[in-house]
Structures are given as structure tokens and as C-alpha cells.
Amino acid sequence: VSTQSTGSSGINAEYLVNMVGLPFSATTEDVRQFFYPIKMTGVEFLKNDRGLPRGIAVVGFYSEGDRDDAMERNKNTIGSRYVNLHVRHESRDYNFDFSKGSSGGRRDGYHDRSRDYRDNKEIQILRLSAVRYPI
User: Fold this and answer.
1) Using omega within 30 degrees of 0 as the cis cutoff, is the peptide bond preceding 23 cis?
2) Highest mean pLDDT of the ranges 7-21, 92-106, 121-135
3) What's the average model confidence in pLDDT over 45-56?
4) CB under 8 Å to 131, separation ≥6 — which residues?
5) Would strands 115-116 and 5-6 be described as parallel, antiparallel, or unpaired?
6) Does the pLDDT at position 130 exceed 60?
7) In the 8-state DSSP scheme, what is residue 99?
8) CA angle 92–97–101, rounded 5-degree value
9) Are 32 and 42 a contacting pair, CB within 8 Å?
10) From CA 59, how far away is CA 45, in angstroms rounded?
């Protein structure tokens, strides 16, 4: 449940931030502590098609100033995880499929080929993103 504030134009506006990289066990209280003392309108944790956490949440704030203050916490941690913050200009309409990533290539986020054309053998591809440790 989220409360919305009224912007200067008289239209309801909510100032949103995407949190990416959350521990799957993160709770609303964890997010509240992360942003303390900034007051939030609400937190919504996104889930995959099986109902499991994605490590992504959308957090609402009462004003643009509160959202700007919240953005100063970008790259802080919850538990042992670095949390990336992104200003969300869209509403809470979640049409973007976060599981496919965001890349400059194909629209579906993948650049992989299932064949190695040099020797015409099939290869297995493991797609990694946001890897924090050397492989």
C-alpha cells in the first residue's frame, strides 16, 4: 500500500527509486533502516514468475527532495550486498522483464550464440551479470 503526494501541478505524484541487488531475504524493515531517517510511502518487492524474490524493490518517497536524499545511499549495503539505486521515472507499471537484463544489443538482452561458427560445434553459454568477484 502506498500513499501518494500531490505535486505542484495538482496531479498525484510518487517519487520512486528502484533498488537492485537486494538480498533475497530483505524485508521492508531492512529497507526502512537503509533509508533512515527518510520517510517512505511504501516498498514493493518484485518477484519472479514462481513467486520468488528477484532482489529488486521499488520504493516510494513523499517528495523529490526525499528521493534525492535517498539516492545518496547508492552503493551502500544491506547485509553483505551492495545495493544499486536508480531513479524510476515510470509509474509502478512493471512491464519490463528484469530477468533479461538491459544491454545495448538485442532487445531481449542477450548477445549469445548457440554455435561456434569457426568449427561448427555447439557450445554452452553461461550469461553472468553484476559479478563482483574475478572468475
Assistant:
1) no
2) 7-21
3) 92
4) none
5) unpaired
6) yes
7) G
8) 120
9) no
10) 9
Give me the residue label for grid cell 569457426.
Answer: 118
Amino acid found at 2: S
**Closest alpha carbon to 62 in 28, 91, 39:** 39
Whole-model pTM above 0.90? no
Work out the average pLDDT over 34-49: 94
| Helix, strand, coil percentages, rounded to 5, for the chain | 15, 30, 55
Rounded Cα distance, 104 and 73, in Å = 27
First to last CA, the chain: 41
- pLDDT reading at 122 higher than 60: no
Which amino acid would we find at residue 3? T
Cα dihedral 49→51→56→57 (10° resolution): 120
- Beta-carbon neighbour count of residue 85 at 10 Å? 21
